[in-house]
Amino acid sequence: MRKVLFAIMAMSLLTVNFVNGQDKEEKTNDFKRWQVRLRGVGVVPVESAKVGVIGGDVAISNALIPELDFTYFFTKNIAAELILGTTKHDVQAVNTAAGNVDLGSVYLLPPTLTAQYHFCTEKEGVFKPYIGAGLNYTLFYNVKSGAVADVKYDNALGYAAQVGFDLMIDDTYFINVDAKRLFLSTDVTVDASNLAPGLTVPAEVDINPWLLGIGFGMKF
């Protein structure tokens, strides 16, 4: 009889431990894996160029845009973020042999994917910083050529670095502050045949913009 009671007690203890273990594992994996953010972003190019034929440099205007991003958490610390937004910039060739030349405007669409590490995972934590790095592929479209006949920009693959933090309002909503640097270069061909017969000006342009944003987000 004692052996039977001992066996029953042992089985009960094993069952309790198993259930507790399962509960702990479920709690560990029970977190909101998705979040979406809407930011206002200032885009500040850090531009430079090697301009053929006429020499000089390039000037690219700043921009203020809305930006939408989606983040998926693989674990409580590791996530991937897809960033979507488009910008319009005015462009000039400056300090050339022909003086300053208006190159019109261009839209950039640089979808960017970053891998992130989030440092703070405590449920009660309010300040949640993170860092990230990844890739972007920039599409140039809706080009207006300004004072020249035509301007062509090559689409380009670049790199991205990111740092930011979330300030939790509650378990679902938060305020976000984010800074990204895109390392982006493109080859540009300027058809200036309307200014001088047969004149084509090639240029290697580094855009390398800062993207400085603040916005609101939601976890789900």
Automatic annotation (TrEMBL):
Residues 1-21 form the signal peptide. Keywords: Signal. Pfam families: OmpW (PF03922). It comes from the Bacteria. The keyword Signal applies. The keyword Signal applies. This is OmpW family protein.
